[in-house]
From TrEMBL:
<dbReference type="Pfam" id="PF00158">
    <property type="entry name" value="Sigma54_activat"/>
</dbReference>
<dbReference type="GO" id="GO:0000160">
    <property type="term" value="P:phosphorelay signal transduction system"/>
</dbReference>
<dbReference type="InterPro" id="IPR027417">
    <property type="entry name" value="P-loop_NTPase"/>
</dbReference>
<keyword id="KW-0547">Nucleotide-binding</keyword>
<dbReference type="InterPro" id="IPR011006">
    <property type="entry name" value="CheY-like_superfamily"/>
</dbReference>
<dbReference type="InterPro" id="IPR002197">
    <property type="entry name" value="HTH_Fis"/>
</dbReference>
<dbReference type="InterPro" id="IPR009057">
    <property type="entry name" value="Homeodomain-like_sf"/>
</dbReference>
<dbReference type="GO" id="GO:0005524">
    <property type="term" value="F:ATP binding"/>
</dbReference>
<dbReference type="GO" id="GO:0006355">
    <property type="term" value="P:regulation of DNA-templated transcription"/>
</dbReference>
<dbReference type="InterPro" id="IPR002078">
    <property type="entry name" value="Sigma_54_int"/>
</dbReference>
<keyword id="KW-0597">Phosphoprotein</keyword>
<dbReference type="Pfam" id="PF00072">
    <property type="entry name" value="Response_reg"/>
</dbReference>
<dbReference type="InterPro" id="IPR001789">
    <property type="entry name" value="Sig_transdc_resp-reg_receiver"/>
</dbReference>
<dbReference type="Pfam" id="PF02954">
    <property type="entry name" value="HTH_8"/>
</dbReference>
<feature type="domain" description="Sigma-54 factor interaction">
    <location>
        <begin position="150"/>
        <end position="379"/>
    </location>
</feature>
<protein>
    <submittedName>
        <fullName>Transcriptional regulatory protein ZraR</fullName>
    </submittedName>
</protein>
<dbReference type="Pfam" id="PF25601">
    <property type="entry name" value="AAA_lid_14"/>
</dbReference>
Length: 462
């Protein structure tokens, strides 16, 4: 659907210091039913932005009073939903990349080719509509604590669930970004399962795991005899994804030659097996996932810019777990139930000190790391409760606590003091109690409370 069908009078603010450029562009845009306002420097652009509230800003990077990047920052601060399309000089790719890092939607090289600009504007408006709709859903008090096999109660995850719900039914290409273990594959599954292709296959490829020389034959298939070792005809993974979804995981690791070929498939919508002359038209929805910043790879010429713009119609960002600690309790509960069932354990809850500990961990391995920690604890727990001593060693030593976290209780401080003192006295509890200024039974009680007592010691000191 053309976004202008739903937003008939989309407002454009065009910021450029050359009036002659404005004239023809303004006329051309108005002919396409856009409402156009013009500004010739940064300050008047910001003033006009406040009065007219445009949907999209076309922003020249060179302005008489300030740089386009500065204006971009001000605009994004004033309204994070506004879409900014930068107009850049020929060959200034690094500037464009910088602008996109600062939140620009896209860029168009000058001299502007109207058809190109129009296509970019359409995409920008579609993007804005989608985000506005997601914001509306949030405002309507619809609270989601999960989607598909994902759980999460943090604002960031709720936003993500809303966005997935909106994007899934469309056929738009999706780029999922997130560190390892944040749940990119689950997000891809959720998109597929909520799309009209749900009854079709979802084919997943880890681009980092296929050796460079095999990539093309894996992706496109080959005819028998196409190369040494091609003993039989082979269907490519793209062919297998017909009527379904193709997930290209770790897309940043795709070899350069395969990037060119993939781009061609996306442009021409046709595929040919290696060594074959016949073309066929695959029908698949593309989802890509990455844990690296593609912008950085592009700046290093390791990822093709034209491919980037093909795959990033909708971007779904999954924040690292340490930036959404509110999700830790629900995730921990989910994994506790999952593994208690799997290993037939009676365990049903966490001791509060365990949850506190989990809340403070740095979680460099994100949700996957949390899942493994809980699995470990469930396996070694014998009663109904997970205690600190059931956590892996790294947790008990406290070495992976995020010391910069503001989440610190008096109990944390007390526990840390006991651990430190016992280390100093090499486990001698009498000496530790003396240093800490408490009676030995008090120290024992606290060690028990914080799960610092080995089971045999518990019996001896009870
Ligand atoms: N929000 C969530 N709710 C429930 N489980 C989750 C959630 N996020 C991640 N997981 C679980 O964490 C593990 C890692 O998730 P997943 O494999 O989707 O991550 P990933 O980002 O694709 O990782 P990688 O980049 O390493 O491939 C999986 O077992 C998944 O089930």
């Amino acid at each position: 659907m053309n976004p202008r069908d739903t937003m008939p009078a989309a407002r454009i603010l065009h910021v450029d210091d050359q009036p002659e450029t404005h004239e023809w562009l303004k006329l051309a845009l108005e002919r396409k039913q856009y409402e156009v306002t013009v500004a010739t420097d940064g300050q008047s652009a910001l003033n006009s932005f406040t009065t007219h509230r445009p949907d999209v800003v076309l922003l020249d990077h060179e302005l008489p009073d300030q740089s386009g990047l500065e204006v971009l920052r001000h605009l994004k601060n004033a309204d994070p939903l506004v879409e900014v399309v930068m107009l850049t000089g020929h060959g200034s790719v690094s500037l464009a990349v910088e602008a996109m890092r600062e939140g620009a939607f896209n860029f168009v090289e000058k001299p502007v080719e109207f058809a190109v600009l129009e296509a970019v504007l359409d995409k920008a408006l579609a993007h804005r509509n989608l985000h506005a709709e997601a914001a509306r859903l949030r405002m309507s008090h619809e609270r989601r604590d999960g989607l598909g096999r994902m759980v999460g109660t943090s604002p960031a995850m709720r936003r993500l669930f809303d966005l997935i719900t909106l994007v899934a039914p469309t056929d738009a290409s999706v780029l999922i970004r997130g560190e390892n273990g944040t749940g990119k594959e689950l997000v891809a599954d959720a998109v597929h399962e909520r799309s009209p292709r749900a009854n079709g296959p979802i084919i997943k490829i880890n681009c980092g795991a296929i050796p460079g020389e095999l990539f093309e034959s894996e992706l496109f298939g080959h005819k028998r005899g196409a190369f040494t070792g091609a003993l039989a005809d082979k269907r490519g993974l793209i062919e297998s994804a017909d009527r379904g979804t193709l997930l290209l995981d770790e897309i940043g690791e795709m070899p350069a030659n395969a990037q060119v070929k993939l781009l061609r498939v996306l442009q021409e919508k046709q595929v040919r097996r290696l060594g074959e002359t016949r073309m066929f038209t695959p029908d698949f929805r593309l989802i890509c996932a990455t844990n690296s910043r593609l912008e950085t790879l592009m700046a290093d010429n390791r990822f093709r810019e034209d491919l980037f713009f093909r795959i990033n119609t909708v971007v779904l960002d999954i924040p690292p777990l340490r930036e959404r600690r509110e999700d830790i309790p629900v995730l921990s509960q989910l994994f506790l139930q999952r593994y208690a069932e799997k290993y037939e354990r009676e365990v049903v809850r966490y001791h509060p000190s365990v949850l506190q500990r989990l809340m403070k961990h740095v979680w460099r391995g994100n949700v996957r790391e949390l899942e493994h920690v809980v699995e470990h604890a469930v396996i070694v727990a014998t009663g109904r409760e997970i205690q600190l001593r059931h956590l892996p060693d790294t947790f008990r030593s406290g070495s992976t606590v995020d010391d910069t976290s503001p989440l610190c209780t008096l109990e944390d401080v007390e526990r840390a003091a006991i651990v430190r003192t016992l280390a100093y006295t090499r486990g001698n509890k009498r000496a530790a109690a003396d240093i800490l200024g408490v009676y030995r039974p008090t120290l024992y009680a606290k060690m028990r409370k914080y799960g610092l007592m080995a089971p045999q010691e518990e019996v001896a000191t009870a």
